[in-house]
Amino acid sequence: MRRPKVPDLIVGLDVGTTKICAVIGEPAAHGGLDVVGVGTAPSRGLRRGIVVNIDSTVEAIKAAVAEAEQMAGLEVAGVYAGVAGGHIRGVNSRGVVAVSGKDREVDSTDVERAVEAARAINLPQDREILHVLPQNFVVDDGDGIRDPIGMSGVRLEVEVHVVTAAVTSVQNVVRSVNRAGLAVHDIILEPLASAEAVLYEDEKELGVVVVDIGGGTTDVALFRNGAIWHTVILPLGGDHISNDIAIGLRTPLPAAEDLKKRYGCALTALVPAEETVDVPSVGGRKPRQLSRQVLSEIIQPRVEEIFTLLAREFGRAGFQDAATAGAVVTGGTSLMEGVPELAEAVFDQPVRRGVPLGVGRLAHVVHSPIYATAVGLALHGARRRTQTETAAGADGSLFGRLTRSLSGLLNDIF
Known about the structure:
single chain, 414 residues
């Protein structure tokens, strides 16, 4: 007998390069998320965060969601899906409008007009806007304003971070989810979701970089003054480390992946000289015994390259000193020993490993960097739904609907 579909359930679906992960949750009274189901499946239909085989991706989505449904004992109808990949671009923009009210009081219509002006950037036909994330507002000469509604002034200016993506890449994610029998409630940039799950509010205020190292990509977002100021997607991740091990030790790729997970260390100085590992050979040859330091000497340069490229990117963008609170590394590859220590050495800032926060019920199941994106997607969905319900209950008028759409926009970050 089929289980009933429950509309109140919120599903975060992380469509990753190495795994598809589904987290089913319910909005919690404390504003977080009560996790009731978790499912994962190997992902074979993506490369560097982009869908290259829809059939394989559909099967993996079905398997992950079915596992989560089995754990929850309920069926779900729609998901909040994540998107990443080298096609993602982030740019800061600004919009300026005259305050239109007769008393020169800023209202939600003025804010919407300012945001619309800021999102009017030149885009090729093959790209679309994913997010317009307000950073701060300026009313006349007063800047650093979070919510300008109700303030008096003649000129309203907004600074925003605009995230764009390749239309076809987003469509392929949506199509894969739809073919798995699920609706897509929203598409969210994956580093935003990861940040939602692993960052504390004081870190966002001071300035922090969240680095989500996945299988095919490393997704990065810089927060400052509670808002997002820079996003980067590097087409490098844990799969590249496994490839390096396979080539360097002449071992099959599955064995290289296993060696990385069980014995990998990103900082050779942390590995005792006497430790050894058994390395399977190719072509039916006998396994060999090698020093674990040799394995680490293959891994360290690749992880160091990822962090060095990020440091250069932030320097080029003028944000090299913006992350006062340091960095948070998350994602499956961050589980490797030595990753936070190597990141501290490269960034010259404090670094911690990030796990999902603000979750209840099955919190122990998702207490790992592996689930950061999927939990963050579900948290985003829970927050968006709560805002909509609160606004709908308060006012069903045109002003209420405007405020609703605006509050969703402002609360994307603030």
